Amino acid sequence: MEMTRLLMLWFETSKPYLFLTLVELFLAIYMILVQSVTSRGINALVIVVYGHVIATIVLSFLAFFLEKNKRPPLSFKILGYAFLLGLLQITLCQMLLTMALQFVASSYESVGLNMVPSLVFVTALIFRQEKLKCWSINGQAKIWGLVLSAAGALAMVLWTGPVLLTRSLSNSQATSDGLVGSIMIIVGVLATSFWIVMVEHVTQFYPAETSLCAMMTLIGTIQTAVVAAFVLSWSSWELKWEGGLVLVTILLGGLVVTGLSYYVMMWSVKKKGPVFTSAFNPLLVVFSFSLQTFVMGYPAHLGSIVGAVLVIVGLYLILWAKANDMEKKGIAADDSVYPPLIQP
């Protein structure tokens, strides 16, 4: 019984860390699958729409049963926020980032997403959702954590170095297609950064995260479908089987990357704040390069390994500082009961 209680205590304490890490892992897998599918003639915009249709159905089903008795009444204010959240996270972020994979490699997109923590941190400071004492230990840990994470992600792509394990990832070239992909990534990163900060504000007066997520996904899916209807021909909506790869990509995107990930991120922002939630983004670079090395046969260079170490050290510094912040405020890491996973 004591062992069971300790295991349950550990799980409750570790939930935010575990779930956010899995979100980045599944996103890395999804990005590689999308790149593979789009190279076979499937339009990325179609994948986004179909995936979000599935996510809307799943989230609506969960919201109906899980939050039936605690869901606050709807208002035009809530619908307006749901519209804006859907526009930021789905229409501007997910749609553009998925389409960008037709022009740039998944590893380069993951580096772009690594800038999300810095943008979220600055935005949270502006809106006073995060406090920073530059010369305190916690303040220095946050600053250096962001710097090391960003430097590590850039090193993994820009600094090749000698091959330590075995074919080199080709560097992106300055083509017109590459420029289009880069612009899509920039807009998508800005959109998701503002979305993370806005979620904390909205969940304070609408605490039903699953219902909010379902509304956001429904509205975002409609927005994306309208855009797709104008830019795609009817033939583009016909999916090829491709050995089941297309179906797996859509299901993974709809059920996990979109549906469950949106809920996990909203829940984490409410529990831990926007900076903590976005701090896990650098793991996407590590997972992307690991999958390309060990699954797809690409080599591991010195730059990739050094960059991965810097990303992990930077992430640990940020999480250590956040855990210390919560301890000083007398707030436990989860539900005001359990201590932080990382003790300063």
Structural class: mainly alpha
Q: What's the shape?
A: globular
Helix content: over 70%
Rg from Cα? 20 Å
H/E series: HHHHHHHHHHHH
The fraction of residues in strands falls at under 5%
Averaged pLDDT: 81
What does this structure look like?
It contains 12 helices and no strands. Helix 2 (44-66) packs across helix 9, helix 4 (106-113) runs antiparallel to helix 6 (137-158) and helix 8 (209-231) crosses helix 9 (245-272). The chain is an all-alpha fold. The chain has helices at 2-38, 44-66, 76-100, 106-113, 116-126, 137-158, 176-205, 209-231, 245-272, 274-278, 283-294, 302-328.
Gist of the model:
The protein has 12 helices and no strands. The protein is an all-alpha fold and 344 residues long.
List key phrases describing it:
single chain, 344 residues, 73% helix, globular, disordered C terminus
Write the layout of secondary structure elements.
Blueprint: H1 2-38, H2 44-66, H3 76-100, H4 106-113, H5 116-126, H6 137-158, H7 176-205, H8 209-231, H9 245-272, H10 274-278, H11 283-294, H12 302-328
Helix pairs in contact: 1-9, 1-11, 2-3, 2-8, 2-9, 3-7, 3-8, 4-6, 4-11, 5-7, 6-12, 7-9, 8-9, 11-12
